[in-house]
Amino acid sequence: MKIAVIGANGQLGHDVVRAFTDQGDEVCSLTHEDIELSSLESVAACLGATQAEVVVNTAAMHHVEHCEQQPVMAHEVNVVGARNLATATRDLGSVLIHVSTDYVFDGTKGEPYVESDEARPLNVYGRTKLEGEHFVRDINPKHYVLRTAALYGNYPCRAKGGQNFVDLMLRLARERGRVRVVESEFTSPTSTADLARQIAALSRSDKYGLYHATAEGSCSWHAFAGEIFRVADVPVTLEVASPNEFPAKVPRPAYSVLENRGLKSHNLNRFRPWQDGLHTYLSEKKLAVASQQA
Ligand SMILES: NC(=O)c1ccc[n+]([C@@H]2O[C@H](COP(=O)([O-])OP(=O)(O)OC[C@H]3O[C@@H](n4cnc5c(N)ncnc54)[C@H](OP(=O)(O)O)[C@@H]3O)[C@@H](O)[C@H]2O)c1
Q1: Residue 117: alpha-carbon gap to chain centroid
Q2: DSSP letter string over 113-129?
Q3: CA atoms lying within 13 Å on the CB side of residue 225
Q4: How far apart are CA 132 and CA 145, in angstroms?
Q5: What is the DSSP letter of 100?
Q6: Stated pTM of the model
Q7: pLDDT digit string, tens, across residues 193-218
Protein backbone atom coordinates (compact mmCIF):
# COMPACT_ATOMS: atom_id res chain seq x y z
CA MET A 1 0.00 0.00 0.00
CA LYS A 2 1.04 3.62 -0.45
CA ILE A 3 1.22 5.47 2.88
CA ALA A 4 1.92 9.13 3.64
CA VAL A 5 3.22 9.90 7.12
CA ILE A 6 2.91 13.50 8.34
CA GLY A 7 5.34 14.53 11.10
CA ALA A 8 7.72 11.86 9.81
CA ASN A 9 10.74 13.33 11.64
CA GLY A 10 8.91 13.43 14.99
CA GLN A 11 9.11 11.04 17.91
CA LEU A 12 6.15 8.92 16.78
CA GLY A 13 6.47 9.68 13.06
CA HIS A 14 9.89 8.02 12.78
CA ASP A 15 8.54 4.76 14.19
CA VAL A 16 5.39 4.92 12.05
CA VAL A 17 7.54 5.18 8.92
CA ARG A 18 9.53 2.18 10.11
CA ALA A 19 6.48 0.08 10.99
CA PHE A 20 4.92 0.55 7.53
CA THR A 21 8.26 0.00 5.78
CA ASP A 22 8.74 -3.25 7.76
CA GLN A 23 5.27 -4.27 6.62
CA GLY A 24 6.41 -3.87 2.97
CA ASP A 25 4.43 -0.69 2.26
CA GLU A 26 5.64 2.21 0.14
CA VAL A 27 6.05 5.17 2.49
CA CYS A 28 6.16 8.86 1.69
CA SER A 29 7.70 10.71 4.66
CA LEU A 30 6.38 14.26 5.07
CA THR A 31 7.91 16.81 7.43
CA HIS A 32 6.85 20.34 8.32
CA GLU A 33 9.03 21.53 5.42
CA ASP A 34 6.83 19.58 3.02
CA ILE A 35 3.38 20.32 4.45
CA GLU A 36 1.71 23.01 6.58
CA LEU A 37 -1.37 21.59 8.27
CA SER A 38 -3.03 24.96 8.82
CA SER A 39 -3.13 25.63 5.04
CA LEU A 40 -5.73 23.69 3.03
CA GLU A 41 -3.82 24.59 -0.13
CA SER A 42 -0.61 23.06 1.22
CA VAL A 43 -2.36 19.96 2.58
CA ALA A 44 -4.37 19.31 -0.60
CA ALA A 45 -1.38 19.87 -2.92
CA CYS A 46 1.03 17.80 -0.86
CA LEU A 47 -1.33 14.85 -0.31
CA GLY A 48 -2.56 15.04 -3.90
CA ALA A 49 1.02 14.63 -5.11
CA THR A 50 1.61 11.54 -2.94
CA GLN A 51 -1.56 9.72 -4.08
CA ALA A 52 -1.40 7.81 -0.79
CA GLU A 53 -4.16 5.35 0.04
CA VAL A 54 -3.57 5.89 3.75
CA VAL A 55 -2.49 9.15 5.42
CA VAL A 56 -1.16 8.98 8.98
CA ASN A 57 -1.09 12.28 10.84
CA THR A 58 1.26 12.38 13.82
CA ALA A 59 1.79 16.16 13.58
CA ALA A 60 0.26 18.55 16.09
CA MET A 61 0.96 21.49 18.33
CA HIS A 62 1.14 19.55 21.57
CA HIS A 63 3.43 21.37 24.00
CA VAL A 64 0.80 22.04 26.68
CA GLU A 65 2.20 25.37 27.94
CA HIS A 66 2.83 26.68 24.41
CA CYS A 67 -0.76 25.86 23.46
CA GLU A 68 -2.00 27.82 26.48
CA GLN A 69 0.20 30.81 25.56
CA GLN A 70 -0.67 30.69 21.85
CA PRO A 71 -4.28 29.46 21.62
CA VAL A 72 -4.81 30.91 18.15
CA MET A 73 -1.88 28.98 16.76
CA ALA A 74 -2.95 25.83 18.62
CA HIS A 75 -6.39 26.20 17.00
CA GLU A 76 -4.84 26.68 13.56
CA VAL A 77 -2.73 23.52 13.79
CA ASN A 78 -4.90 21.18 15.86
CA VAL A 79 -8.38 22.20 14.70
CA VAL A 80 -8.05 23.83 11.26
CA GLY A 81 -5.21 21.41 10.45
CA ALA A 82 -7.36 18.39 11.29
CA ARG A 83 -10.24 19.82 9.24
CA ASN A 84 -7.91 20.39 6.27
CA LEU A 85 -6.58 16.85 6.49
CA ALA A 86 -10.06 15.39 6.74
CA THR A 87 -11.25 17.42 3.74
CA ALA A 88 -8.25 16.64 1.56
CA THR A 89 -8.22 12.90 2.37
CA ARG A 90 -11.97 12.63 1.81
CA ASP A 91 -11.62 14.33 -1.59
CA LEU A 92 -8.78 11.96 -2.52
CA GLY A 93 -10.67 8.91 -1.24
CA SER A 94 -7.87 8.15 1.25
CA VAL A 95 -8.06 6.71 4.74
CA LEU A 96 -6.98 9.15 7.49
CA ILE A 97 -5.34 7.86 10.66
CA HIS A 98 -5.20 10.80 13.06
CA VAL A 99 -3.40 10.74 16.43
CA SER A 100 -5.09 12.37 19.42
CA THR A 101 -4.61 12.42 23.16
CA ASP A 102 -5.74 11.31 26.62
CA TYR A 103 -5.85 15.04 27.50
CA VAL A 104 -9.38 15.26 26.06
CA PHE A 105 -10.47 13.95 29.50
CA ASP A 106 -10.59 15.82 32.80
CA GLY A 107 -9.19 12.93 34.85
CA THR A 108 -11.99 12.73 37.42
CA LYS A 109 -13.42 9.33 36.43
CA GLY A 110 -11.08 7.32 38.70
CA GLU A 111 -11.13 4.30 36.41
CA PRO A 112 -9.98 3.79 32.82
CA TYR A 113 -11.74 5.91 30.21
CA VAL A 114 -13.47 4.18 27.30
CA GLU A 115 -14.28 5.74 23.93
CA SER A 116 -17.92 6.45 24.87
CA ASP A 117 -16.99 8.50 27.96
CA GLU A 118 -17.69 12.19 27.74
CA ALA A 119 -14.60 14.23 26.93
CA ARG A 120 -14.08 17.32 29.10
CA PRO A 121 -10.65 18.79 28.39
CA LEU A 122 -8.98 20.99 31.00
CA ASN A 123 -6.67 23.01 28.77
CA VAL A 124 -6.22 24.55 25.30
CA TYR A 125 -4.24 21.56 24.05
CA GLY A 126 -6.99 19.09 25.02
CA ARG A 127 -9.78 21.35 23.74
CA THR A 128 -8.15 21.91 20.34
CA LYS A 129 -7.31 18.21 19.92
CA LEU A 130 -10.93 17.32 20.76
CA GLU A 131 -12.27 19.81 18.21
CA GLY A 132 -9.86 18.38 15.66
CA GLU A 133 -11.18 14.87 16.39
CA HIS A 134 -14.73 16.05 15.69
CA PHE A 135 -13.80 17.45 12.27
CA VAL A 136 -12.00 14.25 11.29
CA ARG A 137 -14.93 12.09 12.38
CA ASP A 138 -17.52 14.34 10.71
CA ILE A 139 -15.76 14.93 7.38
CA ASN A 140 -13.95 11.74 6.32
CA PRO A 141 -15.93 8.52 6.93
CA LYS A 142 -12.72 6.53 6.35
CA HIS A 143 -11.02 7.69 9.55
CA TYR A 144 -9.28 6.25 12.55
CA VAL A 145 -8.87 8.66 15.46
CA LEU A 146 -6.42 7.17 17.95
CA ARG A 147 -6.11 8.62 21.44
CA THR A 148 -2.80 7.78 23.01
CA ALA A 149 -0.77 8.87 26.07
CA ALA A 150 2.67 9.34 27.68
CA LEU A 151 4.76 8.50 24.63
CA TYR A 152 8.45 7.65 24.69
CA GLY A 153 10.65 6.36 21.89
CA ASN A 154 14.07 6.29 20.29
CA TYR A 155 13.70 9.67 18.61
CA PRO A 156 13.32 12.95 20.48
CA CYS A 157 9.93 14.58 20.79
CA ARG A 158 10.41 17.72 18.69
CA ALA A 159 7.80 19.79 20.51
CA LYS A 160 9.26 19.10 23.93
CA GLY A 161 12.78 19.51 22.63
CA GLY A 162 14.49 17.13 24.99
CA GLN A 163 14.63 13.78 26.62
CA ASN A 164 11.60 11.60 27.14
CA PHE A 165 10.59 10.63 30.68
CA VAL A 166 12.61 7.39 30.65
CA ASP A 167 15.83 9.06 29.57
CA LEU A 168 15.22 11.98 31.94
CA MET A 169 14.88 9.59 34.91
CA LEU A 170 18.07 7.75 33.94
CA ARG A 171 19.98 11.04 33.64
CA LEU A 172 18.69 12.38 36.97
CA ALA A 173 19.58 9.10 38.68
CA ARG A 174 23.10 9.25 37.24
CA GLU A 175 23.63 12.91 38.14
CA ARG A 176 21.93 13.07 41.55
CA GLY A 177 21.54 9.52 42.88
CA ARG A 178 18.18 10.61 44.31
CA VAL A 179 14.98 11.26 42.36
CA ARG A 180 11.57 12.51 43.51
CA VAL A 181 8.47 11.71 41.45
CA VAL A 182 4.75 12.22 42.06
CA GLU A 183 2.61 9.26 43.02
CA SER A 184 -0.73 11.04 42.55
CA GLU A 185 -0.87 11.11 38.73
CA PHE A 186 -1.61 8.05 36.63
CA THR A 187 -1.11 7.15 32.99
CA SER A 188 -0.30 4.29 30.61
CA PRO A 189 3.28 4.79 29.38
CA THR A 190 3.24 3.88 25.69
CA SER A 191 6.23 3.08 23.52
CA THR A 192 6.07 4.78 20.10
CA ALA A 193 7.33 1.54 18.49
CA ASP A 194 4.32 -0.35 19.89
CA LEU A 195 1.88 2.39 18.88
CA ALA A 196 3.40 2.50 15.39
CA ARG A 197 2.95 -1.25 14.94
CA GLN A 198 -0.66 -0.88 16.11
CA ILE A 199 -1.23 1.87 13.53
CA ALA A 200 0.29 -0.23 10.73
CA ALA A 201 -1.88 -3.22 11.68
CA LEU A 202 -5.02 -1.09 11.93
CA SER A 203 -4.46 0.27 8.42
CA ARG A 204 -5.29 -3.23 7.12
CA SER A 205 -8.75 -3.23 8.67
CA ASP A 206 -11.86 -1.38 7.61
CA LYS A 207 -13.17 -0.87 11.13
CA TYR A 208 -13.09 2.91 11.00
CA GLY A 209 -13.78 4.93 14.12
CA LEU A 210 -12.52 6.39 17.38
CA TYR A 211 -10.11 4.22 19.38
CA HIS A 212 -8.14 4.38 22.58
CA ALA A 213 -4.62 3.22 21.82
CA THR A 214 -2.23 2.91 24.76
CA ALA A 215 -0.08 0.19 26.28
CA GLU A 216 -1.95 -2.25 28.50
CA GLY A 217 -2.15 -1.46 32.21
CA SER A 218 -1.37 1.75 34.02
CA CYS A 219 0.80 3.18 36.78
CA SER A 220 1.67 6.35 38.64
CA TRP A 221 4.65 8.33 37.34
CA HIS A 222 6.43 7.24 40.53
CA ALA A 223 5.81 3.54 39.74
CA PHE A 224 6.92 4.16 36.15
CA ALA A 225 10.20 5.60 37.43
CA GLY A 226 10.59 2.65 39.81
CA GLU A 227 10.22 0.17 36.94
CA ILE A 228 12.72 2.13 34.81
CA PHE A 229 15.33 1.94 37.57
CA ARG A 230 14.59 -1.73 38.31
CA VAL A 231 14.87 -2.85 34.68
CA ALA A 232 17.90 -0.66 33.92
CA ASP A 233 19.44 -1.83 37.21
CA VAL A 234 20.33 1.71 38.25
CA PRO A 235 21.29 2.40 41.86
CA VAL A 236 19.15 5.35 42.99
CA THR A 237 16.99 6.49 45.87
CA LEU A 238 13.47 7.01 44.54
CA GLU A 239 11.27 9.20 46.73
CA VAL A 240 7.64 10.31 46.54
CA ALA A 241 7.26 13.96 45.64
CA SER A 242 4.37 15.81 47.25
CA PRO A 243 1.58 16.71 44.79
CA ASN A 244 2.47 20.43 45.09
CA GLU A 245 6.20 20.01 44.71
CA PHE A 246 6.20 20.48 40.92
CA PRO A 247 3.17 22.76 40.42
CA ALA A 248 1.82 22.52 36.87
CA LYS A 249 1.45 25.87 35.09
CA VAL A 250 -1.52 24.50 33.15
CA PRO A 251 -4.23 22.18 34.54
CA ARG A 252 -3.85 18.57 33.44
CA PRO A 253 -5.86 15.41 34.13
CA ALA A 254 -4.44 13.60 37.18
CA TYR A 255 -5.85 10.29 36.00
CA SER A 256 -5.97 9.81 32.24
CA VAL A 257 -5.73 6.05 31.89
CA LEU A 258 -7.39 4.81 28.70
CA GLU A 259 -8.94 1.40 28.11
CA ASN A 260 -8.50 0.07 24.53
CA ARG A 261 -12.08 -1.17 24.50
CA GLY A 262 -12.77 -0.44 20.83
CA LEU A 263 -9.63 -2.21 19.60
CA LYS A 264 -10.40 -5.21 21.81
CA SER A 265 -14.01 -5.43 20.69
CA HIS A 266 -12.81 -5.82 17.06
CA ASN A 267 -9.97 -8.15 18.06
CA LEU A 268 -7.53 -5.51 16.81
CA ASN A 269 -5.66 -4.72 20.03
CA ARG A 270 -1.92 -5.31 19.52
CA PHE A 271 -0.67 -3.58 22.67
CA ARG A 272 1.49 -5.31 25.28
CA PRO A 273 1.66 -4.47 29.00
CA TRP A 274 3.48 -1.16 29.45
CA GLN A 275 6.28 -2.96 31.33
CA ASP A 276 7.07 -5.08 28.24
CA GLY A 277 7.32 -2.03 25.98
CA LEU A 278 9.66 -0.40 28.50
CA HIS A 279 11.75 -3.55 28.72
CA THR A 280 12.24 -3.65 24.94
CA TYR A 281 13.07 0.06 24.84
CA LEU A 282 15.72 -0.25 27.55
CA SER A 283 17.21 -3.44 26.04
CA GLU A 284 17.58 -1.77 22.64
CA LYS A 285 19.12 1.27 24.28
CA LYS A 286 21.67 -0.90 26.08
CA LEU A 287 22.58 -2.67 22.82
CA ALA A 288 22.97 0.69 21.03
CA VAL A 289 25.31 1.99 23.77
CA ALA A 290 27.33 -1.26 23.70
CA SER A 291 27.73 -1.12 19.92
CA GLN A 292 28.85 2.54 20.11
CA GLN A 293 31.50 1.59 22.68
CA ALA A 294 32.73 -1.48 20.73
N1 LIG B 1 4.35 13.08 23.23
C2 LIG B 1 3.39 12.58 24.00
O3 LIG B 1 3.62 12.19 25.16
C4 LIG B 1 1.98 12.49 23.46
C5 LIG B 1 0.96 12.01 24.29
C6 LIG B 1 -0.35 11.88 23.77
C7 LIG B 1 -0.59 12.22 22.44
N8 LIG B 1 0.43 12.70 21.66
C9 LIG B 1 0.16 13.04 20.26
O10 LIG B 1 1.02 12.24 19.47
C11 LIG B 1 1.39 12.92 18.27
C12 LIG B 1 2.86 12.79 18.01
O13 LIG B 1 3.62 13.31 19.08
P14 LIG B 1 5.21 13.30 19.01
O15 LIG B 1 5.69 13.15 20.41
O16 LIG B 1 5.70 12.36 17.95
O17 LIG B 1 5.48 14.80 18.51
P18 LIG B 1 6.78 15.55 17.91
O19 LIG B 1 8.01 14.72 18.08
O20 LIG B 1 6.77 16.91 18.46
O21 LIG B 1 6.43 15.59 16.35
C22 LIG B 1 5.42 16.43 15.87
C23 LIG B 1 5.67 16.69 14.40
O24 LIG B 1 4.66 17.58 13.91
C25 LIG B 1 5.26 18.55 13.06
N26 LIG B 1 4.41 19.73 13.00
C27 LIG B 1 4.10 20.59 14.02
N28 LIG B 1 3.28 21.56 13.58
C29 LIG B 1 3.04 21.31 12.26
C30 LIG B 1 2.27 21.95 11.26
N31 LIG B 1 1.59 23.09 11.52
N32 LIG B 1 2.24 21.42 10.01
C33 LIG B 1 2.96 20.30 9.72
N34 LIG B 1 3.72 19.64 10.62
C35 LIG B 1 3.76 20.15 11.88
C36 LIG B 1 6.59 18.82 13.74
O37 LIG B 1 7.51 19.45 12.86
P38 LIG B 1 8.44 20.68 13.41
O39 LIG B 1 9.02 20.22 14.72
O40 LIG B 1 9.46 20.84 12.33
O41 LIG B 1 7.52 21.86 13.56
C42 LIG B 1 7.01 17.38 14.09
O43 LIG B 1 7.60 16.75 12.98
C44 LIG B 1 0.79 14.33 18.41
O45 LIG B 1 -0.42 14.37 17.68
C46 LIG B 1 0.47 14.48 19.89
O47 LIG B 1 -0.65 15.31 20.09
C48 LIG B 1 1.70 12.83 22.14
Answers
A1: 19
A2: B-TTSPP---SHHHHHH
A3: 25
A4: 10
A5: E
A6: 0.97
A7: 999 999 999 999 999 999 999 999 99
